[in-house]
Design brief:
Shape: rod-shaped
Strand content: 15-25%
Number of helices: 2
Order of helices and strands: HHEEEEEE
Helix content: 55-70%
Length: about 180
């Protein structure tokens, strides 16, 4: 019986050793699994961060290109209008030179209608004349090309507009060339 008890005792010791090894292996596997999970969670957090940054960069790019596109359109309109203003100026001079004379002349009426059509087109595009005559001088809108001392006028009052100024969407296309008093 001793032999049987001894064997049983040996079996129990072996079983305890096997169980201890199994627990050690299980603990090692759990540690490795937790380490891998932590590593994968870190990678997932990194990928999420990269994705969010990329999404934000794309959104900023989209907004920036939209603004640049609108700005390029506005710049194109201003450049084109600036070139056409010389034509409008010449038509205004032609009408001013003929006014008071034969206003029934067909050629004069044609020039008047062409000027009116140009002015309507510019107004329809959002181009506005800068008010000058009788206004106070503002260097943001007016360019003083002459000065006169005259007590009949107020301080920095515009007394003569030599060339009309125009603006588009609150940006000056061309400053008004004016004569300023006092």
């Amino acid at each position: 019986m001793e032999d049987k008890d001894l064997r049983e005792e040996n079996l129990q010791e072996e079983a305890a050793e096997v169980q201890a090894e199994a627990e050690a292996v299980e603990a090692e596997v759990v540690d490795e699994t937790e380490a891998k999970m932590a590593e994968l969670e870190q990678k997932a957090a990194d990928y999420l961060d990269k994705y969010q940054r990329c999404l934000a960069e794309f959104d900023n790019f989209r907004k920036r290109t939209s603004k640049e596109k609108a700005s390029m359109y506005d710049d194109g309109v201003r450049d084109t209008v600036e070139k056409l203003l010389a034509v409008v100026d010449n038509l205004e001079r032609a009408v001013a030179a003929q006014e008071g004379k034969d206003t029934e002349d067909a050629f004069f009426k044609g020039v008047q209608m062409t000027l009116k059509q140009f002015q309507e087109i510019l107004h329809g595009m959002g181009v506005e004349e800068i008010k000058a005559l009788g206004e106070k001088f503002d260097p943001n809108f007016h360019a003083a090309v002459a000065h006169e001392d005259d007590d009949a006028y107020g301080e920095n009052e515009i007394i003569l507009e030599m060339l009309k100024g125009y603006k588009y969407k609150d940006k000056v296309i061309r400053h008004s060339m004016v004569k300023v008093a006092n």
